[in-house]
Amino acid sequence: MKATIDQIRQAIEKMGDLDPISEDLLIATSSQMEKHLWMVQAQEVT
């Protein structure tokens, strides 16, 4: 999951100048994935 988030972050950087709408979609997707990853990592700690 971390690798996917990293790839989305790279895509966000590239999309900034090309297509702001796609950039917004990628940001929304990555934020949800990062939230889910955080929850998974929190479960692993306990």
Number of DSSP strand runs: 0
Query: In what range is the share of β-strand residues?
Result: under 5%
Residue-averaged pLDDT: 94
Shape: elongated
Radius of gyration: 12 Å
| Helical content (DSSP H or I, runs of 4+) | over 70%
Outline:
The chain has one domain. Helix content is 93%, strand content 0%. The chain contains two helices and no strands.
Question: How would you describe this structure to a colleague?
Answer:
The protein is mainly α. Helix content is 93%, strand content 0%. The protein contains two helices and no strands. Helix 1 runs antiparallel to helix 2. It is elongated, with a radius of gyration of 12 Å.
Topology:
Layout: H1 2-18, H2 20-45
Main features:
mainly alpha; 46 residues
